Amino acid sequence: MSAQQLRNFGAEIYVVDLVTVGVLRELGVLLTAIIVAGRSGSAFAAEIGAMKLNEEVDALTATGVEPIEVLVLPRVIGLMIALPLLTVIADGVGIAGGALLCKALLDMPLVQYFARVESAISPTTFWAGLVKAPVFAILIATAGTWRGLQVRGSSRELGRLTTFAVVQSIFLVILADALFAVLFMEIDF
C-alpha cells in the first residue's frame, strides 16, 4: 500500500525504510506476542485449570510444594526466553518478506533492498522491538497461569477462563505496546 502512494512521488525506495522500521520496532514483536498469547496463554490456562479440576494443585499444596514455584514460574521464565527468540525469527521473516514484495511489486534488486535495509536501521531500531518481548512474555504467562489457577467447579468454567486468558493477554500486550510507544517517544528511543 505504501509503495502505491510513494510511487506517485517517485519515492518507492522509502518502502524499504517503512518495512524495516515497522517490522523491527512494532510488527515483529507484536504479531509474535499475539500468536503466542493465543497458543501458549491458552495452553497455560487449560493445563493449570485442568490440574485445578483434578485437585492436583491441592495435592501439591498438601505435600508442601508451592504451586506458584512449580506451575507458574517455569512458564513465565520459559516464555521470557522463548518470546525474544521467536521475535528475532519473526523480524527475519518480515524483512525477507519485504524483500520479496519489493522485488515483485517494485522490481527492486535484492542487493539494493538489503543495502537500504542496512542504512535504515539505527542502533536502537532492533532493540526497541526486542526490549518489549520479555515484558509481553510476562504479561502473557501471568494472565494464562492466573486464569488457570482461578478455575473452580466445572469444565465449563475451564473453557470460559481459558478464553478469557487469551483475550486478557492480547489486551495487555496491546496496552503495553502503546505504553512503550509513548515511553520511546518521550525518551527519543
Structure description:
- The chain is mainly α and 189 residues long.
- The chain has one domain (12-184).
- The chain contains eight helices and no strands.
- It has helices at 2-7, 14-53, 56-62, 67-106, 110-120, 125-130, 132-149, 155-186.
- The two termini are 27 Å apart.
- The model has no long low-confidence stretch (mean pLDDT 93).
Sketch the major β-sheet. Answer: none
- The count of β-strands is 0
Number of domains in the coordinates?
A: 1
Low-confidence stretches: none
Percentage of residues in strands: under 5%
In quaternary terms, these chains amount to single chain
Please write the string of helix (H) and strand (E) elements. HHHHHHHH
The helix/strand class is mainly alpha
How many helices does DSSP assign?
8
User: Could you tell me the mean pLDDT?
Assistant: 93
User: Taking Cα atoms only, what radius of gyration do you get, to the nearest Å?
Assistant: 21 Å
Helix content: over 70%
